[in-house]
Amino acid sequence: MEYVPLGGTELKVSRIALGCMGFGDPVQGVNPWVLDERAAAPVFRQAVELGITLWDTANVYAGGTSEEIVGRAVRTYTRREDVVLATKVGLPMHDGPEGSGLSRKAILRQVDASLTRLGTDWIDLYQIHRFDPATPVDETMAALHEVVTAGKVRYIGASSMWAWQFAKMQSAAAQQDGTRFVSMQNQYSLVQREDEREMFPLLADQGVSSLPWCPLAKGRLARPHGRVTGRSAKDSVGQRFFGGVDRPIVDAVQRIAARRGRSMAQVALAWVLHNPTVAAPVVGVTDPVHLQDAADALAVHLDDTEIADLESHYTPRLPTGF
Q1: pTM for the complete prediction?
Q2: 128: part of which helix (H) or strand (E)?
């Protein structure tokens, strides 16, 4: 495994991040394909064996049970100080002013709830799940700074939004002499590259790392075009964002993978990893084999001709996931 600093900090993270949206109590969430604690155990063990230290979850995943499972996995399979534990706040957990959004009231309530579910005294990376237009950015950034100074959070990050929104929040933090974001978890893959226009230049300018989510387009880039899996047939997020994935792009991945004797997932992830602003793609797996596949992508170095082939079929589209 390789390790890189997150943003301009001294915090080192593995070049592959374990996405934990696929773990939880199926009854508590909207995704019937999630793994319960027993089924998820082999994935956590594999992550530890591979040296994958960045584990990413969210308070909203499976009604909070993802955080509970992740917290117990940390205590069972590794040491707390050896894991960079990341979670998120902002999407609805329950009704009422504390249940969603990025107000001071919501952030202070939800960070304590996440700490309890995770069974830890601190969160390494606390990320806002989306931009909250209903809350002044000054209030949000002040509250995030407050949880950092209280020792509950070490670093803060953001997730999908417009570049101007991210710039506005960073500016508010700077004006308050507060804590700024060190990472942006944005959607980025061969079939969704719109953040290359403004977000990535902004991140590079400010020394902020990208942690791409859905780097394999919910598996569409890891298998021949049109092939359906049990998970993809039930995954509403994948169907909404990647229902019409471009066949020429998928075919190019398959062609290069066959020529190199590599899997399609390795080629698609290698392309994401070659972006200098990317610290670690967040790979959501429900099978240890797929996690090994992701780690093996680090050994794949695409040449200029292969990169041009992969990129040449892309056409502009609307960003998704905001």
Answers
A1: 0.94
A2: strand 123-128
CA–CA separation, 218 and 244 (whole Å): 12
Domain residue ranges in the chain: 3-311
Phi-psi region of 218 (alpha: psi -120 to 50; beta: other; left: phi over 0): left
Is residue 233's pLDDT more than 60? no
* Cα 57 to Cα 284: distance, rounded to the nearest angstrom: 10
Distance, CA of 38 to CA of 69 (rounded, Å)? 9
- For the residues 198-225, what does the mean pLDDT come to? 96
- Are 86 and 282 a contacting pair, CB within 8 Å? no
CATH topology of domain 3-311: TIM Barrel (3.20.20)
Q: For 132, how many CA atoms within 13 A lie in the half-sphere containing its CB?
A: 23
pLDDT at 134: 97
The counts of H helices and E strands in the chain are 12, 10
Q: Is 288 exposed, middle or buried (0-12, 13-18, 19+ CB in 10 A)?
A: middle
Rg of the chain in Å (alpha carbons): 19
The set of catalytic residues is 61
Residue 38: predicted pLDDT: 96
C-alpha–C-alpha distance, residues 312 and 266, integer Å: 19
CB 107 within 8 A of CB 143: yes
In 3D space, the residue among 180, 162, 160 whose CA is nearest the CA of residue 171 turns out to be 180
The distance from CA 274 to its chain's CA centroid, rounded to whole angstroms, is 17
**Cβ burial, residue 262 (10 Å; 0-12/13-18/19+):** middle
Position 32 scores a pLDDT of: 81
Pairing of strands 84-89, 54-56: parallel
| Mean pLDDT across 144-165 | 98
Residue 214 amino acid letter: C
Q: Kind and range of the H or E element at 305?
A: helix 304-311
Instruction: Work out the angle between the directed axes of helices 65-77 and 104-118 (0-180°, nearest 10).
Output: 40
The phi, psi pair for 265, rounded to 5°, reads: -60, -40
